[in-house]
Recover the amino acids of this structure.
């Protein structure tokens, strides 16, 4: 209405994660007849996506399609023909690793799932080949390797059945470990003193690196940090995840370390 001044301020703007991929944004405004527009975008992008237009609610929930991304959310108020400024908030949606724990047994050719609290074995399945030598995962995906089968396998996390595999016999490997970061997968080759990076979807080897010593025996990570161990060098190493350059190392008290993760 002409000559009328409205409070178009957005206050107490707050965004929270309300599900794996869900964000709820809430705010306050004093005008009883105000409506609100809500938009969001990835922090690195420039294009905003509309969540809702002209709502009288003071909250909005929406889903996004990626994790480990910072999202920007903005809200503005409208009363009559008066449109307010955008007010912005941001939230980082981090990937959360599920609480599932597995081990593999070389002697009996089994893969085992454990209760994460008691460590009791709650499931046992046959390994896809006769000598499993490593098991590890990235976020919600689980992989194993077998030195006699000379292969890396992806397993269904529930049933542990094989859903993908790659034969690495062309490298003449002795696969001694598999694991990685949230979105990057690696294996180590005891025989050739190599660390391989794999495409997590196809399992294709996409990069090959020299191991820091002569007998890499395990590889694994914590979110965005990568580690390996070597049973000849008797050390654990932290690597740059892109170059595999050693950025830290420490000697171990044992004689033959065989896993890290």
């Amino acid at each position: 209405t002409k000559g009328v001044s409205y409070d178009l301020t957005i206050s107490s703007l707050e965004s929270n994660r309300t599900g794996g991929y869900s964000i709820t944004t809430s705010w306050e405004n004093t005008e009883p007849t105000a409506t609100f527009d809500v938009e969001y975008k990835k922090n690195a992008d420039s294009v905003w996506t509309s969540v809702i237009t002209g709502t009288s609610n003071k909250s909005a929930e929406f889903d996004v399609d990626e994790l480990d991304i910072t999202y920007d959310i903005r809200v503005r108020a409208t009363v009559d023909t008066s449109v307010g400024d955008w007010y912005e908030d941001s939230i980082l949606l981090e990937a959360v690793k599920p609480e599932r724990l597995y081990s593999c047994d070389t002697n009996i050719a089994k893969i085992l799932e454990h209760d994460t609290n008691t460590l009791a074995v709650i499931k046992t399945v046959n390994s896809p080949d006769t000598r499993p030598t490593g098991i590890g995962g990235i976020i919600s995906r689980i992989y194993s390797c077998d030195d006699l089968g000379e292969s890396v396998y992806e397993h269904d996390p529930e049933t542990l059945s094989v859903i993908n595999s790659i034969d690495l016999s062309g490298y003449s490997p002795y696969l001694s470990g598999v694991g990685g970061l949230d979105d990057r997968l690696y294996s180590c080759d005891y025989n050739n003193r190599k660390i391989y990076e794999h495409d997590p979807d196809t399992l294709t080897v996409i990069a090959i690196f020299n191991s820091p010593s002569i007998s890499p025996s395990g590889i694994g990570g914590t979110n965005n940090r990568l580690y390996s161990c070597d049973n000849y060098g008797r050390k654990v190493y932290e690597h740059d995840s892109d170059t595999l350059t050693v950025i830290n190392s420490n000697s171990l008290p044992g004689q033959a370390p065989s896993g890290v993760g």
Q: What stands out?
A: The chain has a mean pLDDT of 91. The longest strand covers residues 69-79. The chain is about 0% helix and 55% strand.
